[in-house]
Input
Amino acid sequence: MTVTVRPLADDELPAAWELGRLAFGGSSTAPGWALRPLPGVLRLGAFDERGRLVGKATDTGHEQWWAGRAVATADVGGVAVLPEHRGGGVARALLADLLARGRERGAAVSALFPTVSAVYRRLGWEVVGGLQRAELDTASLPSAPVPGVAVRPGEPADLAVVDALYETLARPRAGLLTRRGGAFDLPHEGRWPDGVDGLTVAEQDGVPTGVLVYERGTGYGPEARLTVHDLLAVTPEAARALVGVLAGWRTVTRTVRVPLLAGDAVSGVLPLERSPEGPGAAFMHRPVDVVRAVADRGWPGHVRGRVAFTLLDPVVTENTGPWELELADGAGELRRPDREPDLTLDVRGFAQLYCGITTGRAAALAGLVSGPGDPSALDLLAAGPPARLLDYF
Output
């Protein structure tokens, strides 16, 4: 079957919502934002010869933080194909078009949460992490008073505090969304966003240093659970105070689910050894434009070096070919070399190295690096911190 991929017209958005509902389940009533254009968001449709919508995908309009720099992305969400056309190349056509459009507008990298990872692996994405969370007995949480920290109930206006503290924590890390653009720019109009029931702010000397955003859920028996959407602290005192607030829920909610950001102040307070919860949804990554992916992010300032490799990309042909990577003074450059490299790197291996979750030799053992050269030379590409995500999309 031949399909035509193009941006969806406004009057086609209800049909796209129905296609997504058929694929993923959910309410038959679409939220308002799903039925109108969103600045920065690209919704693509795949149409058969009769003009019928058979697939859809969305470029979310996100940016990601990479060591202090905001990097443009072609992050992917909402990929759905009619069941009668699955396995027929519709998803490939959609995603190849999405990557090409993303590259044209300046996107450097792409992340997504797969329903079936094999589909996306064939197109160059690779798993680089998972949403981390803990599910804890509320009674196990420490609750000692924390001198010098005041906690207060928040209101919708304090969502700006959430944004500011999140950026402080996210900016120096790798992979976290900037929470700007696309659906993140939807106004809350003085109300709690969907799924938020309350917010607690921790302050020290009148300055916000932590915030807790939660969804209460239903019931107060053994099955009751409090779901935390954000638990952010920029001081260890604020972390202890907010975990103490969570402990206070023990009288009506036996369980609390908390998102985790490795290495932050909160992780040093929670009794994580008591959590049976493992990693959440896996996320995948790939470069859209390898030159931009290297140049636009921050790199560790103490790392210097060069490595040459031939990159293989099954979809973005501009990425394929010989490259030389050079890092120095916190910046990176990728350019064509003057000699034939002795290492060949699959784009999936590039994704894992770029996201800091593997080494050259480990990638070789996984079949993602080949050639007579020493694969450990590719550790230069893995010099940054491991990529994280806190937001599902």
